[in-house]
Amino acid sequence: MNEKESRNRLVTGNAAFLAGIPFSGDTSEKIRQQTAEHGQHPWAAVVACSDSRVAPELICHAGIGEIFTIRTAGNTIGPGELASVEYAAEHLGVPLVVVLGHTDCGAVKAALKGDATGHIKSITDMIRRAAGIETDPDKVCVKNILQSVESLRAALAKTAPETIVRGAIYRLETGRVSFIEG
Ligand SMILES: [Zn+2]
Fold first, then answer.
1. From the CA of 39, how far away is ligand 1's center (Å)?
2. Nearest in space to 110 (alpha carbons), one of 122, 124, 99, 97
3. What global pTM score does this model have?
4. Contact 61, 24 (CB under 8 A)
């Protein structure tokens, strides 16, 4: 699958989800055996927020072995996330990496509030860096997605330059995934 086909597959899977079609991802015994025997060949890597309402496989009707998923609160990119994406791009050859943020993100709200403590602060600090002087949560959400996109593009430019990195936003209230420019 190339990058365009990969993006189309995410869009059509999300359209099926939006239409209320029963989950059509393949989780059968056959696919489990096939992928156990022959390895995984995912056609996309997705860095999504850990929010329980934003599971990439569910909202895009993807089954076993299809999406290499990295999830972290606020879809931020630290060393572990970066390493995981590098692995997906360099060793699994995914044509597309998507950073998937979402509306009403708790991590974005916590960053704007500015009272995070403990390890949570490492995430909110990254989001605050993306926000700059912006205080509108929807705009900060997009800026945070684009910051993660830029981090991944910079890293993959050296190691897997043919891999395309894009940002997308999931709207909790509608269930729609939209790719964003930039
Ligand atoms: Zn979130």
1. 31
2. 124
3. 0.97
4. yes
